[in-house]
Amino acid sequence: MHPALSVIAFTVLSGAGYGLALVLALGHGNPAHLPTKFAWVTALVLIAVGLMSSTLHLGNPQRAWRAFSQWKTSWLSREGCMAVATFVPLTILAAMSILGDTFNLLLGYIGGIMCMITVYCTAMIYASLRTVPQWHTRWTPAVYLLFALTSGTMLYFAFFGREAGSDSNRIWVWLTLVFLVVTWAVKFMWLRHASAAGYGASSMESATGLGNLGRVRLLERPHAMENYLTREMAFRIARKHRERLSLIGAMLGAVLPFVLLVISLMVAPALGGFLQVVATISLLAGLFVERWLFFATAKHAVGLYYGGEEKLVPAE
Amino acid sequence: MTQLPTTTDKKLGLVIDLDTCVGCHACVISCKEWNTAGYGTALSDQDPYGAEPSGSFLNRIHTFEIVPDGGEVIGSAGEARVVHFPKSCLHCEDAPCVTVCPTGASYKRAADGIVLVDEDMCIGCGLCAWSCAYGAREMDLAEGVMKKCTLCVDRIYNEDLEEIDRVPSCVRTCPAGARHYGDLGDPSSDVSVLVRERGGFDLMPEQGNKPVNKYLPPRERSALGSAASVPAVQEDTSDATGLLAWIDRALSGGSAKGAS
């Protein structure tokens, strides 16, 4: 699938924003402290920028409001509705902190649960597609939720939370290390599913219905040039690029944050705080790579009409 | 709106004969011609006369080669078969493109089962194209709305046209008679009979979309080389008279075996 930058930015940024909002909504951070107020603003800005970025790939963004109508059947519509609805408790909580130095735990729980539901809806847009077997698994929403939680947690304590060197900072670091391990373990399960998924039960033989005659291969495309379908659905990256990018994603998103966080516990607080900020930026950069690969490596059933594996894999 | 109707009164659709299609692309052109001026916005082209022309089409012909198990491939053919494969919207009963639509622009008509896009409501998110296993939907890059086969809804009910023209443009134009249109929900319709008699099949049944359109398989073909053993027809010219008798005698090399 074509990795559209607007959709990658949307899923990564809004995911981190909802993760950060969840941490705040669960009552972490003194509402009267300035860093907590900044954290609320950051969470709302990340969510808003993510959502606005998602409208950039629309053909007619001025009609985007219509997307709130079909929540009965469409995960995209559900995601839109939930995103807007979640703004209500989050904006109230942010205003309570910024203007009144107060917090309400009940409203926080409601807002926190809504954050998670919204991220789940985002993931289900992709996980619900039978045409992309790589995405069509329960592991997809699990990965989206865990990456949102982990990036939100790191954003919170590295930028707005506990001063490095304090006891509470240590607890947050240990918590994040656990989150990192769990998140990448689940991501590994997703990768195991993805690498075996291929075209699922479909093949060029089932796509053409000609399998009973023999082995099917594409002789001629409908047109010599690319079209919307090949650009959007038959996107392919060379294996060597995929492998290199997977490595970069795992380094930036898993290894580097983990190592930096461990080191941050052992060095002077000032340096530790700096390392925690670097670790967070590294995680977010790794997430962009991970999300790019999520799209770029996914195979869509339409590829079978354009030659499947044989024709679509570019020369290396 | 994007909830699918539980049943439709009719199941209008196409039956495409893969044995007969010669891959001439006439249906592609007539489809583009009719629909660029018909339902909804025009079917735009990008860079049409430039180095990388592309555009939106509602019907495309793929060409496949099938090599039988253990089949001998001589040169580029031998026992391999070439099958031209027209592909357009299959107007699925369980159309995922309809249920994923966030705006209600995509819908399936309860009356005849045709899947349509209300272009005034379409935001051009492209999710319906992602959900379609058949590549039947293409975004028009000029208008930013999703285009798809309408089964020529502006022809089939159009009483301004002569009755013979009230079929989809691709069906009307096919010079080989490879495309058939009718109600596949009516077991006694011509298309339903054709599907039964020829063993019509669904594309990718495992995707669970229950397509309405059916494809007819290529017929059995005689084995490689068997054509040479068919004896040449011996024609009897013994009843030729006058000028024709003279020509017959002259062309028969003077043997006059056909002359009386």
For this entry, give a set of tags.
heterodimer; A: 316 residues; mainly alpha; 2 domains; 11 helices; 67% helix; 2% strand; globular; B: 260 residues; alpha+beta; Alpha-Beta Plaits; 3-stranded mixed β-sheet; two-stranded antiparallel ribbon; 11 strands; disordered C terminus
Return the average pLDDT of chain A rounded to an integer: 92
Number of helices of chain A: 11
* Beta-strand content estimate of chain B: 15-25%
Using only C-alpha atoms, the radius of gyration of chain B works out to 25 Å
Order of helices and strands of chain A: HHHHHHHEHHHH
Architecture of the largest domain in chain B, according to CATH?
A: 2-Layer Sandwich
What level of helicity do the residues of chain A show? 55-70%
Q: What would the average pLDDT of chain B be, to the nearest integer?
A: 90
Total number of distinct structural domains of chain B: 2
Extended strand count of chain B: 11
Strand content of chain A: under 5%
Unreliably modeled segments of chain A = none
Cα separation of the termini of chain A: 19 Å
Helix-strand makeup class of chain B: alpha+beta
- Gyration radius from CA atoms of chain A, angstroms: 22 Å
Net shape of chain A: globular
> Assembly type of the shown chains?
heterodimer
Report on the architecture of this protein.
The complex is a heterodimer of chains A (316) and B (260). With 316 residues, chain A is mainly α. Chain A folds into 2 domains: 1-128, no CATH class; 162-316, no CATH class. Chain A has 11 helices and 1 strand. Chain A has helices at residues 5-25, 34-54, 75-100, 105-127, 139-160, 167-197, 204-208, 228-232, 239-264, 269-296, 308-312; one strand at 215-220. Chain A is globular and about 70 Å long. The model of chain A has no long low-confidence stretch (mean pLDDT 92). With 260 residues, chain B is of the alpha+beta class. Chain B contains 7 helices and 11 strands. Chain B has helices at 26-36, 96-99, 127-131, 153-156, 169-173, 190-198, 242-251; strands spanning 12-17, 45-46, 54-55, 59-67, 81-88, 106-108, 115-117, 138-140, 145-147, 179-183, 214-216. In chain B, the strands form 5 sheets. Chain B has a 3-stranded mixed beta sheet. The N and C termini of chain B lie far apart (81 Å).
